[in-house]
Amino acid sequence: MDINSLLSPQDSPAQETPPPPPALGSPSIQSPGKRAIRQVPSRTPSGLSQQLTSSPQPHLSYHQHKQPSPGVGYTNGTRPIHSATSTPPERPTHSPRDARMTPPNPLLRSTSGMDTLADLATMQHQHQQAARHHTAAQRPTLQNIPRTISGGSTTDISMGEPSPKIRSFTARALAPEHVDYLTQLDRSLSENPLDYYSHVNFVTTLHQGFQYHMSAIDPGNPQSYELLSILQEAGVSMAKMYPLGETLWQYRLEDEKALAANVEDRMAVLELYKIATQDEPSSAQIWVAYGEYLSHLIACSWEQHPPEQWSEEERAIGRELFTPVLLQDVWRQGAESVKYDLQDSSLVWDRYIQFLQEDLERSASNQEKQDKAMRITGIYRERLGQPHATWGETLSKFASFISRIGGNAEEAMEQAIQQNTHIKQQYANREEFEFKLLQATQAADRDAEYYALTRYLKWEKKTMGVYSFPLVNALFERATLRFPVDSNLWEDHIEFLIWQKERSVDLLGVLERATRHCPWSGSLWSHRILTLEAEHREFNEIEGIKHTATRTGLLEHSDIEELIKVQIAWCGYLRRRAFDVGASEDDADIAEVGIRSALELVREVGMKKYGRDWPGDSKYRLERIHIKFWLQRGNPEEARHIFDSLVKHHKDSYDFWYRYYIWEMVLWANHAMRDKSNERQQLLAPTRATAVLELGMAQLHTLDQPKPLIEMYVNHCEQHETVLKVRSAQIERRRAERVVAIRKQKEEAAAAASRPEQQQQQQQNHAIDKSGKRKREDGVDADPASKKTKPLEANEAQPTADDTRHMSEAPSDAGSAAQKRDRENTSVIVQRLPQSATQTKIRQFFSDAGTVRNVTMKPEKDSMSSIVEFESPEEADYALTKQAKGFEGHEITINRGQNTTLYVANYPAHADEPYIRKLFAPFGEIVNVRFPSLKYNTHRRFCYTQFVNGDDAIAATKLDGTDVEGLKIIAKISNPNAKKKRDGATAEGREVYVWKLNFRIKKREIQEAFAQFGKIERVNIPTLVNGNNKGFGYVVYERKEDADAAVAGMNGKDFWGMELKVEIANDRGDTKPKVKSTIENATSLADQEATPSKQDTTTGTRGDRTIALLNVPDTVNDVRIKSLAEPYGYKKITLMPQHGGATIEFETVEQAGKAEIALQGVQFEGRNLRIGRYKDLVAQKGEWKAGNSFVQPTRVNRPTAPRGGARGGLRGRGKPGLGSRPMVPRASGEANGGEAKSNDDFRAMLLGKEKASDGKTE
Q1: Where in 840-913 does DSSP place strands (E)?
Q2: Which residue from 63, 426, 465, 942 puts its CA 20 to 30 A from 781's CA?
Q3: How far apart are CA 255 and CA 392, in angstroms?
């Protein structure tokens, strides 16, 4: 790939959901196991440790080999052995992508750095020629291998040698869909070489193909893999920009071991292991594989019957290079690096101690044995003083060792137990967290693993003791190892280290790894620059780090805020350095140039990213640093000039005028006091500060907070100005107050003008509310007889979107006469209930506190917790007194549910309960996540997340307004009485409604016609089955001004033979409820638009190609249904929650058949799916949920009619009246002269009687 391609990057297809990676076997190199090392001569330390930095061919790339190693075997079965040196179990292709905060799909920015890229592009060929010549002349060492983005340059952003635009990925080990997937990824990387996800998926897919090739295609000849050179090239390309992470390092090392054919290659593999352990020092898996591979090489060099057959020359070289001393050093370093990993440290330590004991057995003299035995005893005692999961096994091994060397094993065990009781308790306190973490890891559930890790970390920090630092630090290392691209975890780790001020951990080393794993995080780079400054590092070093951070363009790709964070740290450092003790004038000049360059860079990037009208940083932070710089340099006029330049973009901000005014007052303060220097002189008035306030007063028509500015101006004049100015200020106040009053009247008039339309809509909603049964969820019940007289269809069709939102307590503008349900203030949380507790028992327990509306149970590890909802807050208050009584002899805790629930909205459409739990897990324990029903509005997207206590819920509101997958999430404390402000494109006036369209026009033509007025966010053109549009559509712009321009330019214009009608879309809700939603396959539609004359490839009738999903919860939206249908190539999905399911139309009957077989009985959202046809779906009733959640009706004592006197003979002896379940067998209905009555028959009968009754009344 030529570097010229970087000058105009395109959007990467890796942003879309990729096809599934190849599910290939992952064979493994046979582990050497625990072999005894025989005939080992005296271990004189060799020079290998020094040679590892200067030995032949220690390159980071994959190596070319002429012949395979004859001794390497592979398992051919379906169950490969995953030993320490084997390929790790397959993980999903996207495993490095499972970070909680998704890193950006990076693109190169187009800034001043592009000039450098252009120059580099012209020199690329010479650079590659020189690199090849240098490699041939001198092998690189570990120090000069370019392996990180921090140490690379923009010239490294290439895929090695320039490759043709289209490469063939055909291989015997890959299926056609895998070949297509690789082609897509290759195209993505050609357009955007910095695409992290494409790199990961590309390398992983090629690796899996290589492993399958060696296991099933050509086991004895790994060189015959057709894509080997591409695999090597891909690994090198990614390593130049990003650390590989634990998983990809394991993949790469396994590939290298399989290809190693001589001693030189094996030395290169060892050097790769050394680099891997530097990149991921806390990975027990990599350390184990490192030691096992070195053990394998030692066995091949020294044993009489080696696992691989080497030539005598190679064995002689191996005996010189691969020594037990080196192996012991590897095991020691590994054991030291992971010793506080409670779960996996034993993997390394057990091998270390086994090696030492085997070495003890080979000792020649008694003195040597005695010395080694004492050393091993000390290592055992040190290990027993560290908490770990296999502490008991370690104690047992220690006793066996003491017994073998002739000591008293029982006494040693007793002493160890007494000395380490607190160590056992430390692990016992963490055992539950370790168990849940291990459970999630073994289940390959990344979401559960992340939740368990973050909850574990929160507990560790909250309960941290004097000796807990190593354990918490090791847990952070485990978290960043498993989720290496989650910048939040890295930030938490760094803040923890700074807070602890622990010098035993290299903070700069952690920051270096953090910025390499997350180079898009401005916060991490900022921490690194500040830490370098705090440790008094050289200017050149700090400057180099700053350039490394900014030159790739990753910082500003997702949000320019990340770039600003780095520039703030850099400019702050330059300013402080310029005025430090001993600073020179050159330092001040350097700071001036650096701050100006930072401002220009941010301005240039902002304009290119957001347009030339970008106003700049709303907090003008860099400008404030620049102002401070000029003030410290003694040039307030230059600083004032910067303030004046900000007026244009910040003149409507009260905060800006306040800061400007205070700054001027600080300057004037030097002249505010009388001393000998100004004796008998008139003190200067703060005229410049007054002028600033007068400039602000001129903006009263648009200022965001006019009243505080008026008061500040008048107060300033009264305190500091002359009498004339004070009098003028009094007059100006009256004028300004009139201006503000007129402005307020206009705003109120505008609001009143739009209010009738809102009131009309509310009245419609209220009328619909009266006719629908959902209105009775929280209000007064209608007449019981009338409940049964309304047809089911009416009940399903009446409620509106706003109405149902109100019923589910989401903030809404719709009014309602019904009393709102207030779960937040009427609920209590009950914990430590026995596992025998049931809803009925809990209702009985709280029966004397009030009416229990709802009980939600949640199982815990050894207890139960429950959320109990009452009718009023007073009842909930009284329920708190029940804690002292206890529950069935068990102590319980009862807390108010007030302020424990978050209203969460605007999250990604695919989010489900695990997603929400994972998102909010760092803030505390979540009790419940509640989604609304979609039966009456399928477009609802909000939920309620309830925490154990209010502090956690309040802390979780920090996510409010943050970016989650491109959406600004809403996370507020739930308040049923709150009003939700209208937002979105329609409310903001950015959506254009277009009608009178030619029916044959396509979406592409409409987008091209309207793109001339501004940047389009999306275009929605409803279409018919035949592909024609329905005559109307919507165009959403990014700015309101562009939408207005489109209306002015396109309304009434002749467009494809028709007079086009264009207007700004209004915000009135549809009168019909949104009871259905549809998703059409974008790929299929794109094919139709691209080739309109293409013959329809669908087969069979629509009914044959359509299946219905039954038993789907009515809280599931269409996007989550889409995830089920995507593997089978759906054409159209229609969600029908009012019937508890959805229909999926496919292109062919075969696809429908495959989907039906695969989805039948699948567990989805806690239910077993059933597959049927459309008629089965429409015949199915939706879920029924009691409006009051099983609230028992008030008991009414009615007189009973004498036997035989009751109508129908069914109410004698106080039996239940009409509407009760008849206590008669079904057969009796048939025996009495007719078929058993259905619900419809009873409904028709009741309707008939009601009509007859109405007739009599009339």
Answers
A1: 852-859, 864-870, 893-896, 901-905
A2: 942
A3: 37
